[in-house]
Amino acid sequence: MLEHVHHRVPVTALSFHRRDHVILAGHGNLLRGYDIDTGQILTNLKVFDDQAVHGILVTPDEDVLLVWGGRLVRKLNGHSISTYRPSNVYEARDWILDAALSPEDDCIAFVDAHNALTICNIRDLSAEDDGSTKPLATAVPSSNCILYSAHVTWLSGSQCLIASGTAFGDVMLWSASISRIADGSFTAVAQTHYTFSAHEGSVFGVQLSSKQQARRLGDGCDCLLASCSDDRQVKVWDVSDRFTNSHSLPQIQRDTGFGSKPEAEEHAPPCLAAAMGHVSRIWKIRFCDHDAQKGVEIMSFGEDASNILWSVKPDSEPGNQPFALKQVGVQNAHAGKQIWSVAAAEDGCFATGGADGAIAIHHAPNLPAEPSEIDRKMLEPGDNIRYYAFFNQGAMLATTDSGSVWTLQLGAAGTSSAREVLPALPALRGYSVVASISRLAFLAGSAGIVYMYNANTNKLTSVADCGKKVTGLFVSSHEKSHSVRLVDLLITTVGQSDPCYMRFVRDAISTAEYVSPREDHQPSLPIPEGFSITSFTTMEHAQPCIHLTLVGARNGSIAICNTSSDGHDGLIKLLPNVHGKEAVTALLWRSHGNKPTTLSGYLHSLGKDGTHAVHNIRRHDQKWEIELIHQLGLPFGPNIEGLTILPNDHLLIWGFRGKAFIVYDADAEQETMTVACGGAHRNFAFQPSVEGGTFVWTKASKIYQHMQTRRPYTLITPGDHGREIKAVSVSSTEDMQIFATGAEDTNIKLSTFDEKDGFRCVQTLRRHNTGIQHLCWSSACRYLFSSGGFEEFYVWRVTTGVPVLGGVGVVCESVHPNSGKSDLRILGFDISETRQKGVFDIVLAYSDSTLKQWSYDIGTWSLVSTIDYLTACLTEVFHTSGHVITTATDGHLALWDTEASASSLTWRTRHRTHQNAILGVAFRELHDRSSLVFTAGDDNAIGITRIEQCGAVRALLIPRAHTAAVTAVAVVPSDTDRNTLLLLSASIDQRVKLWTVSIDVTEPGVDGVHVKLQRNVATSVADVSSLALCRLAGDEGVGCVVCRVGMEIWRIGGGIRDTYLSRVSDEVIRE
């Protein structure tokens, strides 16, 4: 049997359930209820058999849910989120676009894709489910227009107002007066108020405001209409005057939308404001209600997966519209493309659902605001703050141009209290640098004098005189014991090859002062000549007493030095070009298991190459072992500036992208804070927190701050690619099962799966420049191989058990030497690991009908042979029974022999299986050393080919196995009968089928192959591209993952050979 376990597909409907503090979401044909605070799934109810949910309506008493999708409508009755049960299915005459509940009774109005209005009463909809589908009667008949959007609202218990957006850029505003006749059905009289050309493209979103919202623009406004389109424009119209009638609905509908416009169509309402936004089509638009004092605000949602907040402001420019739409803020909560669903709550929050399967709750009051300028009235005229650093929560130490030193306590909206520590110091006049840790800061200037500020005593003292201009201060701190704190200070100066290293000790029991040991106990730093330091951190271990100093350089290298007090100073290891030739901007040490006394740990580094790297450093048998276990590009940069590990163990990274400062949660893969500051080349300071932090920056000699105490949005459920998944491969290791998926967004995501919580992305690999074509794990799952267009081929080394990084570290170990040199696609490849560890034989199948064999040995590539097939595009390559086999778009299987003494492939024979392209392959070796090859065809058929060890080929074909192209197949071996296999197939018809294949190996060719269809189920994954087997919990722990527009898990098992729903007809063709 096939049992549905979980899926992550586009979120196509959302609604708030206030009583249970739940967000309801439509995922495919399922209705899910999520706890808003925890994200836990509280209910998971199948609403339709094979129709996606497109809308959810909750009655005021919240005892009834109305769910629709396509033409279908279903009522769900219950008293809490876990007790809702579905009734009969009702069917409208066309695709339902919107629905609204009457405020005075239980009537519901539906508007469909041909502008028809359907009215029914909730009480009239059956509460029972007898399995039948009942029709819904239409009150206002459809017309010959094609709608892409509609919004219906009730003006009273007997009148509806409807706004409709057409495929050809028109908007219609009409109303319907509704009455109920004796037999209980509804009739309506329609009246058209406006019909006009609103946009130059299709109108994808329309929204009518409430009277209260419209009155914010003036007492003369009673109703506003907002519209959006694929012309990327947002417009606001005044539709308060509805007393002038336009033509009736049948008279104003055009058949095509092209050609001349009748004069009647030019009856348009006043356009109050218009603006262009987003980078592609705008799908939806909503009026916001979170703050009436801010006037009229509108939110638009686009194909670019972003939502933009607009404010309607008066426009005083002559000749313009009376109002202007000002962009207030932009949020990017979703990956890839498309925001498909929106819901608003009464408290001003709203939810969005994307094609990536994520649901985000947006906290509207915390949308990005104007930056606050820090008050500088305490400074002398002409004096400016030059450098600054945080030394405590919300507290900064700052130096000025005149050389004075101040402490600033930051408040909200730019308020601050200032206190002068010392008046102007000549050593700090005109130039200074500042570095800080908790409650401690160091300052220096062009004279070379270094000062220490201790917040415990509020004292500034001189601690060193370098005699030269100080170019950099680097400080690190760690606890040696519960009472003793060590602080290491590194000072670099102009023209000095060896930096000055100082160590300070504070005994928290006896004093608040930091004491510097005698000069002869100060460590030296044995770094290579010309090593220009840009970052610094330390590691302390008590038993044995070891102190490591780790420094990053401007040339991308990292030096690891022993600066222990035992006199064994020395350079342990120089890691060259970790970040290429770009500067190492930040270093962070994390002890193994989060225990400071552990003599091993992880060194995190950031560089201006835009990557985050992790080295595993451990001491074993008196020797240091250092291994790069992770290095991946970040989704912003290249100016990556800092990182920290939060108390919740999340890794926070910050830096700049374009003109914005970005704070990124690497574990959640979420941008937690975005501030428009002008770009990277400026002084700044950042103090992180779990919910955001405080960012201070200099712009045009002014100091600004942005304080965020709450993330702008919360992900109720995380998302995946947001684009079509083209390839999937599942690792088979026992300790950690990893789902690798590659998509059109050019990214590879590594995810784990739990039946309770679903998929969780642990790493995103951003190296490809084209859509992913194929993925494959090595036999030991230590390596992942990927291919794409432009002849791209990458080798990824994967390490599990890494803390902070979701348990997985990834390094791009090698890039194929021909990557990016042509426009050829590598559609498939075959990997064979040799007896030598880390050495692979790789066969690549190209789109120009070429097959290339390579030998790979830890970063070294050797071309073994190149062979042409014919003219057809090769789609797959694999090896079985001593043969290398390829499939192609000509529908043929081709066999290539590899002789032990030969160094190249030899084309032996080809066999036609399908009428055209072979889209997927699975195979199984039999115990007589022959092989069965299963192929998915573009001709809707499944091919089964038996290949003998001698090379003899016979095939049978299952025509019309699906009603559309078969795109993927997978084989499940039986653990009880070696002559029986299970075959899974998936198709563009959104069906997954389970077949049993029995083989009598004593029969020649395929005479002993018998096929039966066992299960035929609908999948919520559209346009299926790939299948892969996976391991699930429980006794029947075999499942499969279905991928393309989303991901879905099915469990395989339970009476497989005992129950057959149908038998494949006698159309099986044997060749």
From TrEMBL:
Classification via InterPro entries: tRNA_Anticodon_Mtase-Reg (IPR051973), WD40/YVTN_repeat-like_dom_sf (IPR015943), WD40_repeat_CS (IPR019775), WD40_repeat_dom_sf (IPR036322), WD40_rpt (IPR001680)
Predominant cellular place of this UniProt entry's protein: cytoplasm
Entry annotated with the keyword Ubl conjugation: no
The family this protein is said to belong to: Belongs to the WD repeat WDR6 family.
WD repeats: 959-998
Localization terms from the record: Cytoplasm
An annotated GO cellular component: cytoplasm
SMART domains: WD40
Protein's name in the database: Uncharacterized protein
Keywords associated with the record: Cytoplasm, Repeat, tRNA processing, WD repeat
